[in-house]
Design goal:
Helix Hairpins; elongated; single chain; 106 residues; mainly alpha
Amino acid sequence: MSDILFNVGYGHFLVLAAVLFLIGTAGVMIRRNALIILMSVELMLNAANMTLLTFARMWGDLSGHTFALIVIAVAAAEAAVGLAIVVAVFRGRRNVDVDRLTTLRH
């Protein structure tokens, strides 16, 4: 039992990334609140980063780390723009339920 806890291999990180990605996907599919959807997308991006870093570490290549840093920067910009849009929509409509937002369709 103690071998499982102290000998963490690449498979453990890949399983954790898969679980995080599934939680994020479920959050996007099930929830209708725009803030929850943004947090779920961030969770999915972090799971993808964990996968990138795991494979980069497995192969001994540093290009995966560089790509993960680029993904983190893009995720930060996406979060800032997404939150600005959510705040603007909330100020105008007093609701951030994505099923009720039809003004952006036209």
